Task: inverse folding
C-alpha cells in the first residue's frame, strides 16, 4: 500500500508490559488488522531472537536484573531484533511491531533514540492486567512455549512466576509526557492515551479500544442459494431459491443446536434480500448492515461471467489479471470492499457474545481473510462454498476452523461461482 503523505514516516509500535500481559496477543491482532488494511506490517518478537541465538529454556535467574551476564545478553538480543526492524523499514516496511517487555525507562529510551535517528515514529503500547488474566495467560500460552518444552506444568508455572517477579522488581510504567503512548488497562477496561495524532494512529487506537480476550465462536456463512445463483448472474438483489429457503431452515437448526437456552447471539446480515431471508428462521434478533453488501459489480451487475467476457473482454481480462485491485467500472474492487467492511471489523472485535455473519461471497472472503490473517491479495481466491458454515473458534493467538456443510448440498459446481 502507498501510504498517504500524513502517514509517510514508518511507524514502530513498541510493546511494553510484564511477561504474560497479552502483549503478543495484542501484537498479532494489530499485525492482522493493519496487514489486512494494506499496510506492510511485521512483528519482531525479542523472545524469538533470544531462543534463536541462545536456545530455549533459560532458567528464571537469566531474567534477574541483578544477573549482569543475563542482562547483557538480553540487551544484545533486544538490540539485534531492533536492528532487524530498522533494516526492514529500509526495505519499505510501514509498521513494525517490536514485541518485548521493554519494561524500564532506560530500555525504552534506547529503543526510542535508535528509531528516532532512523526517522521512525514511535508509539508505545503498554498492557497492564490483573492477576486473573495473568494466570490464564501463563497457563494457556507460556506452558506451550518452547521455553518450557520438557517441563512438568507445575514446574513451568513456578519458574515463569519467578521470571515475572524479576521483571516486577525493575518495572517502570509509561509516564513520559513527551512520548506517544497508549496504556491498555485490564484488556480495555481503561485506556490512557498520550500524544496520539495522525490518521493511522487514531484508527489503531479505535481498534485497540475494542479488542478483548473473551472467547466466543464466530460463524461465517454466505446466504442460501438465491435466484441469481441459479441463473449464474452476479450481484442484484434476488430472493432465495427453494434450495436457499431450505438452507435457511438448516442454518436455524445449526444455531439452535449450538447455543444454550436464552444465550444471546449477535447475528448480522447485509441489507440485501438473500441474506435477510437466510436469517429469517433464526431464533434470535438480527441486524442488517449495508456495509456487508456484496461487492458492487457496477456495469457488470446482473450479467453472467460469460456475458462479461463477451461484452467487456478488456474488463474481464483486467480482472483475471489482478482480481484484488480490479475495480468494476462504476463499482468496487476487493480493496474497496475491505475499506467498506473495516468498521464492521472493529464492531466485531467489540462483541463478547457468539456472532453469526450471513453475507456474500466477496464479503465472506475478506472477513475470513482478516480473521485468519491471510495476505490481502489471497482474499479474492478463498473458496467459501454456498450452504456451508465456517465455524471459527478462538485459540491462544487466532482461530481454529471447522467447516459444516449443511443441507441441501448443492455440490461444487453450483456452490462457488468463480475463483
Ligand atoms: O456469484 C455470487 C457473487 O456473490 C456475486 O454477486 C459477486 O459478484 C461474486 O459472487 C463475487 O465473487 P468473484 O469476486 O469471484 O466474482
Result:
Amino acid at each position: 500500500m502507498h501510504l498517504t503523505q500524513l502517514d509517510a514516516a514508518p511507524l514502530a509500535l513498541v510493546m511494553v508490559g510484564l511477561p504474560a500481559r497479552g502483549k503478543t496477543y495484542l501484537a498479532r491482532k494489530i499485525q492482522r488488522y493493519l496487514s489486512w488494511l494494506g499496510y506492510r506490517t511485521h512483528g519482531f518478537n525479542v523472545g524469538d531472537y533470544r531462543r534463536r541465538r541462545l536456545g530455549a529454556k533459560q532458567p528464571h535467574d537469566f531474567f534477574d536484573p541483578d544477573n549482569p551476564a543475563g542482562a547483557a545478553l538480553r540487551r544484545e538480543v533486544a538490540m539485534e531484533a531492533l536492528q532487524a526492524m530498522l533494516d526492514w523499514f529500509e526495505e519499505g516496511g510501514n509498521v513494525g511491531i517490536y514485541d518485548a517487555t521493554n519494561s524500564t525507562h532506560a530500555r525504552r529510551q534506547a529503543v526510542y533514540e535508535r528509531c528516532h535517528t532512523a526517522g521512525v515514529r514511535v508509539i508505545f503500547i503498554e498492557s497492564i492486567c490483573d492477576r486473573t488474566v495473568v494466570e490464564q495467560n501463563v497457563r494457556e500460552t507460556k506452558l506451550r512455549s518452547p521455553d518450557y518444552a520438557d517441563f512438568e506444568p507445575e514446574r513451568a508455572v513456578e519458574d515463569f512466576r519467578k521470571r515475572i517477579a524479576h521483571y516486577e522488581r525493575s518495572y517502570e510504567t509509561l509516564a513520559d509526557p513527551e512520548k506517544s503512548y497508549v496504556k491498555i488497562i485490564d484488556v480495555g477496561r481503561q485506556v490512557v492515551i498520550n500524544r496520539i495524532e495522525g490518521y493511522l494512529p487514531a484508527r489503531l487506537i479505535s481498534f485497540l479500544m475494542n479488542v478483548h480476550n473473551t472467547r466466543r465462536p464466530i460463524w461465517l456463512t454466505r446466504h442460501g442459494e438465491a435466484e441469481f445463483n441459479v441463473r449464474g448472474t452476479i450481484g442484484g438483489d434476488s430472493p432465495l431459491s427453494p434450495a436457499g429457503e431450505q438452507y435457511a431452515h438448516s442454518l436455524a437448526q445449526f444455531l439452535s443446536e449450538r447455543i444454550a437456552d436464552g444465550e444471546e447471539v449477535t447475528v448480522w446480515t447485509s441489507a440485501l434480500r438473500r441474506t435477510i431471508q437466510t436469517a429469517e428462521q433464526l431464533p434470535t434478533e438480527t441486524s442488517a448492515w449495508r456495509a456487508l453488501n456484496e461487492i458492487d459489480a457496477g456495469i457488470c451487475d446482473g450479467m453472467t461471467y460469460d456475458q462479461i467476457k463477451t461484452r467487456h473482454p478488456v474488463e474481464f481480462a483486467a480482472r483475471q489479471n489482478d482480481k484484488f485491485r480490479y475495480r468494476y467500472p462504476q463499482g468496487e474492487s476487493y480493496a474497496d470492499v475491505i475499506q467498506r467492511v473495516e468498521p464492521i471489523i472493529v464492531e466485531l472485535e467489540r462483541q463478547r457474545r457468539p456472532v453469526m455473519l450471513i453475507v456474500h461471497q466477496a464479503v465472506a472472503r475478506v472477513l475470513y481473510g482478516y480473521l485468519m490473517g491471510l495476505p490481502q491479495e489471497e482474499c479474492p481466491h478463498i473458496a467459501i462454498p454456498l450452504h456451508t458454515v465456517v465455524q471459527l473458534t478462538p485459540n491462544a493467538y487466532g482461530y481454529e476452523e471447522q467447516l459444516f456443510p449443511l443441507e441441501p448440498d448443492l455440490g461444487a459446481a453450483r456452490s462457488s461461482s468463480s475463483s
